Fold each of these.
Amino acid sequence: MTVPTATPPDGVCTDHPEGVTHVSRIETVIRRALAGLIAVGAALAAGEIVSVAVSSFSSPYFAVGALLVDNAPAPVREFAIRTFGTSDKQVLLTGMAIGIAVLAIVAGLVERRTKPFGSVLVVLFGIVGIVAAFQRPTATATYVFPSLAAIVVGVLVLRVLTGYLGARRNAAAPEQDGLSRRAFVGLAATAAVAAGGVALVGRAIANAGNAISERASLKLPTPRVRAKAIPAGSNIDVPGATPFVTSNQSFYRIDTALQVPELKTSEWQLRIHGMVDREMTLTWDDLMGMQPVEKVITLTCVSNQVGGDLAGNATWIGYPIKDILAKVGVQADSDMLFSTSVDGWTSGTPVSALTDGRDAILAVGMNGQPLPLEHGYPVRQVVPGLYGFVSACKWVVDWELTRFDRKKAYWTERGWGQMGPIKTASRIDVPASFAQVPAGEVVIAGTAWAQHRGIEKVEVRIDDGPWEVAQLAEEYSIDTWRQWSYRWQATPGQHMLYCRATDKTGQLQTEERTPPIPGGATGWHNRVITIT
Ligand SMILES: Nc1nc2c(c(=O)[nH]1)N[C@H]1C(S)=C(S)[C@@H](COP(=O)(O)O)O[C@H]1N2
Ligand SMILES: [Mo]
């Protein structure tokens, strides 16, 4: 940075009849840093508003984020999910914002009249945005515009705020800002307010008449046959126990989407192609002309740790996948349904699991409402017995019938398994970890699942005692989880509680502790509590 050797007091210098300003070193640094921040903020705002016109997926900020998500090495991703859980996206976006702010300050500090390093940095950011936007599955040539707008606005604002554009050049100190303090503050405030306003207006336009407002008034089709009623006995009457049906608000959410796709029913299509006798494209109206079914199915994520809560049970409304596959005619040597989401994520589901008679559905409703946007609005897949990463494609828009030896889906490409059968699991929900409970009768309660095989038995062990059979809640179906409880005469002291389940094929839950990757965690859940 060029700083005048003798720093006169701030303000207008009386030596210069033109009113050229001298600025102290510290004020110069602050001005430059602010100029960089405001310029880059304005650039991002410009990118966002143009992306409203192009496509939300063309936003340079989110495109760069998506690029990071899709290319994060497996250990980094594992760490992020373990450490931040489902707030990993917020953490990434915040981290990006901090990184960008630092680079923006640098850009401001290094900008010069004839050596515009800061502007070059802004252009480089923009180019990264363009490259990232073109990686989006929906990219078209127009995806260049948001980043181009960001570049133009960023460079212009930076040049103006550093006084290199539109302000009088200071002949005595050509690298010094030619702006008076008042002019700088006025321009900086104007640019900051304008950028903020543009960003807000962009949000508002994007939200008007979009999928969110459509969903609020969407009428779900009425299934002719409702799901079997949930018997009262499927819920256990223990305070703190996991409810049999998970509300949409508390249903776990796992996906790679930094921006929840906003797809309207009128924009939704499912193209079915590949190893089929008749290619077909389904629209929302086509679906509405078909017979919906209603099913209660428990979903589970392969990333769930022993004792973890990445599982949920809902009543789904949708269309049997096997009926749709029958319409297109799956060729005999096709063994995989390769599904693609509108955000580019893919899953590969064994055709056998979709046609063997189980309730695999193309779902449009969840617990009596249209799918929440984060759970796949308007259409997703739900397949009993398989982990979500091989089966539960949200925002699904493309089905290719293919073979496992020809294609690999998103997570399989990143080191996870291929077929994804759900492993038998059981967990203790009550009492809480490290709870202090008075001696006497203590109810231990939990959840167990082995979707599409069913839960036969759950056993509980206290410390090194014998395994005792727990009481099972009434079974709804083999595709749903099952609650259990055990009454224990607790004696004072610290105790370790264990549980394990046996599925209906007679297979006992695996004792050996293994991590979630590649095919789901194994091991018996345990919990330490203190009886007082
Ligand atoms: N488009 C898309 N669909 C997806 C995913 C994803 O990342 N993108 N994740 C899958 C995984 S790993 C799981 S466990 C389930 C979770 O569904 P939920 O978020 O509705 O609970 O969605 C599946 N469908
Ligand atoms: Mo998952």
Amino acid sequence: MTKRNDLPHSPGPAGGWGSLKGIASIFGESWSSPASIATLGQLNKPKGVMCVSCAWPKPANYSAFEFCENGAKATLWELTSARCTPEFWAKDEHTVSALRDWTDHNLEKTGRLTHPMRYDAATDRYVEVTWDEAFAGIAAALKPLEPNEAVFYASGHAGLEASYLYALLARAYGTNNLPQSSNMCHETTSVGLTKVIGSPVGTIVWEDLAQADAFFFFGQNPGTNSPRFLHPLKEAKDRGAKIVTFNPIIEQGLVSFVDPQSPVAMLTGKATTISDQYHQLKAGGDIAVLLGMCKCVVEADDAAKSAGKAEVIDHAFVEQHTTGFDAFIASCRDADWGEIAHESGLTEADIRAAADVYIAAERVIGVYGMGLTQHAHGALNVAMLVNLLLLRGNIGRPGAGCCPVRGHSNVQGQRTVGIAEKAHLVPLEKIDDMFGITSPRDDGVNVVEAVEGLIAGTVRAFVCLGGNLLRAVPDQQRMEQAWAKQDLTVMVSTKLNRSHLYPGKHAYILPCLGRYEIDAQASGNQSVTTEDSFSMINGSIGRRAPVSEAVKSELAIVAGIAEAVLPANDKLKWADWTGDYGLVRDLIEETYPEDFRDYNGRMFEAGGFYRGNGAHERIWKTDSGKAVFTTPGELNSVGFKDAPGRYRLMTLRSNDQFNTTIYGYSDRFHGIEGTRDVLLMNPEDIIAAGLSEGQTVRMITDTDDGVDRQLGGLTLTGYRIPRGTVASYYPECNVLVPIGLHDEMSKTPASKSVPVRIVADAVSAAA
Ligand SMILES: Nc1nc2c(c(=O)[nH]1)N[C@H]1C(S)=C(S)[C@@H](COP(=O)(O)OP(=O)(O)OC[C@H]3O[C@@H](n4cnc5c(=O)[nH]c(N)nc54)[C@H](O)[C@@H]3O)O[C@H]1N2
Ligand SMILES: Nc1nc2c(c(=O)[nH]1)N[C@H]1C(S)=C(S)[C@@H](COP(=O)(O)OP(=O)(O)OC[C@H]3O[C@@H](n4cnc5c(=O)[nH]c(N)nc54)[C@H](O)[C@@H]3O)O[C@H]1N2
Ligand SMILES: [Mo]
């Protein structure tokens, strides 16, 4: 049942002195200036600056330091004093081909990009251009294309104002090809949750955290990925709430936490135990676990009924608010414990113990992340968690709900303001009316379809508002070849990354201001807004000097491209909008009046203003107008059959990275230091496979689609992980993920269950 952390590597608690050391090492590594420490003090507070790291909400009652280890790292990394200037590119050894041998870490460590650059094929390097030349060059390459041959990608960094205009640019140009980083992330939520509760986003708000009696964590790792979550969790534990975790590996933040903001805790080292139960299920085993837990709830309800006790299932809620109940509970009754145990890797007793906590709690929050979304049946994972919550009416009342934890700081908001490849999600008629354009009505491509289009040669131009798509997507090797065949690649970026190193025929790097910098425009210094995981909108004001006079804001870059590419149109006032972002917020409010009422007036409210969410009020915007119970057609979320020698690979994040940005090589929570080239495997599996710890191994993707996918040079490391499941780092493993392996409903790549074989490296090299 409750499993202690007795793995060979024994990291200290999350938070505590370890986190301060982690921050200090980035400070040294990125050569941030001492003044950047002052910026940390302004993070996530009203009229401060919203952290560029994750989308965890900002409490209205903030503390003196409302930032975490990773927010501090992201901030210091962006505020580095290193600069990647035109002189960098002029050095003999810095050809684009040579830079492909650099690590992700070293590429970004060259510092902030300072000047717009154009790729020069003759010398194989980027050379400086003026902004006007860059915009004219981009327009010349885009204009001859069929609009659907171009893709406008966004990573979830840019604020709501720039994002709204970016979507407008794409539609006025003629395409809904607006994929976003969430296509690799929580698209499973956007599609799967909408289907069952009619909301594409989580249903809880900040106050619910303080009222929940129990939290269930399925595949989300707050210690690394949303560390400020640990504070409300600690408070919940202090008042007696229970936490139950399902995760194939031990994540330290879910084990124990020392609050770095508590002097007593820091000096005494007194850690709070986070999880009361920690269940190490197999990767892909969540459907079985959730079915087992629901089975226990149904049994308990039956027993209560026959004993004349209070019901366990909230039948009044089920009756009034849901559909599909009868079929679902029939599947619970039919479910076989032997199968559940086999599919989950847990015992019946483990699952019953978790269900006991669920049943005893009046108010429950179900938290999840990539461990549920990045699977072939990811949407079913999400629907199963919703089933569990619906049984006891745990959605749409105080202290209860569904809490997908989002990644990038504005990833959710970008979707809210129109960065969407699905036409029906956007009020196109209204937009056409407002701007005198004709938006296309056909759906655009998501990330997987964009990659397929690249490989097929039907996508010929890519504009990227942030991100490092080439490194983030599956089938990376095939992508590199396809990416460089395009007519045009445009990257709006803050730092150098691998996506810059496979330039199309025409290629531009456009450096932008970061959120911490002063954004001076015609009407004065501008602020921007973002939306967090709880649908709260927050204003953010940059106060630091720009990295270089030659960089532009993201909004100004979008407007610059638009002016060069689009025909003249009196209603598209790019120059006015660039001069005053408040005008763009007025447009957003006009387009989405319910969500953004009095936008300019409310943007600096403490904790942000709430955009609202039907499911939070028990208004279900589903086809049936009710919340939906889903009868599972599968018992695991994996898209392939088990076979001898075939393992389920889950791709990991370290606490020393933010996605493809690798801050360093110290993953103290996983106990891995100095390298990322490791393969974590159960010691019994290592022996059974005839391998030995410390040996160098190679992973080979075990599919028969005719594509050879391999990754070698990995040190085999014995680890406390269930048999049959192995783990290694993202993004390095992306060469192994087939583009065709994705959630069936949303096409989110199945990065948490990739079928692999493992061989000794030398053997395979000789083969
Ligand atoms: N420091 C840091 N912070 C980040 C990021 C980062 O890279 N670094 N990335 C940001 C982004 S974009 C995102 S989307 C979020 C991601 O944050 P998370 O959603 O937490 O994502 P991961 O760490 O990829 O995976 C979450 C957990 O799922 C577990 N897991 C894997 N497979 C399974 C499974 O089959 N079942 C269950 N139950 N668990 C499983 C893993 O062990 C891991 O602990 O974080 C954001 N914040
Ligand atoms: N195997 C595997 N693959 C995965 C995942 C996984 O868990 N496993 N996770 C997936 C997930 S959840 C996500 S979200 C994607 C991430 O995919 P992306 O969002 O495309 O990638 P990032 O690494 O976040 O992008 C980093 C780059 O963004 C740029 N940047 C940083 N800040 C800014 C800014 O303020 N403005 C602009 N314009 N640019 C900026 C910098 O140039 C930096 O190099 O990867 C996905 N891929
Ligand atoms: Mo993400």
